[in-house]
Amino acid sequence: xxxxxxxxxxRESGIITYGITPPKKTNSPEKNIEIAxxxxxxxxxLDIDALVIYDIQDEAERTSQTRPFPFLPTIDSNVYGMNYxxxxxxxxxxxxxxxxxxxxxxxxxxxxxxxxxxxxxxGASSSKQINTMRLDDAYGLCKRYGSRIILGGVTIxxxxxxxxxxxxxxxxxxxxxxxxxxxxxxxxxxxxxxFLSDYYYYCQTNSMDMVPIIFTLTPCGSLKTLEFMKWLGVxxxxxxxxxxxxxxxxxNKSVEVLKKQFVELLDFSKYKKIPIGCNVESVSxxxxxxxxxxxxxxxxxxxxxxxx
Length: 308
What we know:
Layout: H1 3-9, E1 16-20, H2 29-43, E2 50-53, H3 77-84, E3 92-97, H4 103-110, E4 117-122, H5 135-145, E5 149-155, H6 160-163, H7 166-175, E6 180-185, H8 189-205, E7 213-217, H9 223-231, H10 238-245, H11 250-270, E8 276-281, H12 287-307
Parallel strand pairs: 1-2, 1-8, 2-3, 3-4, 4-5, 5-6, 6-7, 7-8
């Protein structure tokens, strides 16, 4: 059994991953090979349990606000992981926005011939989005065909602010076969702690084992990145947004905040024995933000080892 598979199935804390978005389809083949080569060089020596590869979908129906950056389709997440990043010898967690695929396409992916196949299924970004497949139907296909797949789900702790039911969404996905969860980027500490608290007490009351919750941390290096994160639906408390906007170094300020918040999440989870981990990502192509995200992985690793 691989190390990541063991950590997930034994519901361990401390899973650390790094998240990337595949390059744009509109790039030349040479450009995408160059991008992949740089990512392999950057990540080869990084001590992480897995690489998360996102599957980007157009979320224009989710909000009436104008997208800060134009939507451009990317290389298929599985193709990018298996072909372009084949020299990166770490597990890859492949996101699948299931509404983009038909039944045969998704079954082919589920039946991928590898020992440990990790994936996170993602549903529609809004009820208005036109999809070829519903998330529940994708779960059904996974149950029928996916004997090798280790399935994960998405959680958005900020949704707990309004409806107090994010833990119930997680429980439903666990019932559908999800063994771990990766959050959307989190900046609202209270929302994350409230979600974890309700998740913990629900599982205690119903004699359920808690599966790992992997929180995503995203450095913010510019006002444009901040605007994009808000467009994506990341909930940033007003006081924190003000601090970031008025900081002399917005990137270092955001990293400092993220580390402090993750320490609090670790402390909160430790005594309740809630298994949590960390996924660090960069939503920017700027070199300085990418480098900050790599350093954040190293810092989070030290924090997790010290806490453990």
